Amino acid sequence: SCSCSCSSDLSQAEAAPRRRAPLAELAWRLAGGGGGETVEEHREKGGDLATDISYQWLRFFLHDDAELARIGDEYSSGRMLSGEIKAELVKCLVPLVAQHQQARALVTDDVVKTFMTPRPLVGASAES
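-> structure tokens emitted (128 positions)
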């Protein structure tokens, strides 16, 4: 299970509407860099955690240290392939993006106006 900053309910992520598909597509196309040139090379040498974009993103978004360590061990040993680590990233990001979209949908023009209205800082002196 994913322990992202947003949610660990993967059933919602797996049943996500089509509008989130571009996120998965982007991860598959752009988040690379640490795997071997071939499956055989990757299985033999393992993935490079320092250069793999998917792993670096998981370091930030995956809040389960034990799961991150497991993924790192599997990937760096060659037991987990690049496509599999990208799938782990997508599994983590889809609920995060869904939560952001839900929160953003609640923002009205009045909320923006209130947020952007200048007001004095609490505790600030007049001389500052």
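The first helix runs from residue 10 to 14.
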